Amino acid sequence: xxxxxxxxxxxxxxxxxxxxxxxxxxxxxxxxxxxxxxxxxxxxxxxxxxxxxxxxxxxxxxxxxxxxxxxxxxxxxxxxxxxxxxxxxxxxxxxxxxxxxx
Length: 102
What we know:
It is a single chain. The chain is 0% helix and 51% strand. It has strands spanning 23-35, 41-48, 54-60, 68-73, 77-82, 87-91, 95-101. The strands form 2 sheets. It has a 4-stranded antiparallel β-sheet, with no helix packed on it. A hairpin with a 3-residue loop joins β4 (68-73) and β5 (77-82). 16% of the residues are buried. The mean pLDDT is 89.
């Protein structure tokens, strides 16, 4: 008579750590807006990424960086969409934290 086969013991799986976030945070400050030589409205912004080094940027509506896209510019605020897809307004002479790619 054949011996019964031992039942396989299910392997215990260790809980997987949560996936690492795809984003970190940076700071974007709206300094002022003006028209360039072609008459296009541009925003002058200071962007500080995870390296902590501020970078002054001159961007128009529709312009983008890997961290954000400029959606609109007025005298009082710039509206951006960050790397996570979140939209937000940054008032003149103020800054806000935004999601940036790691």
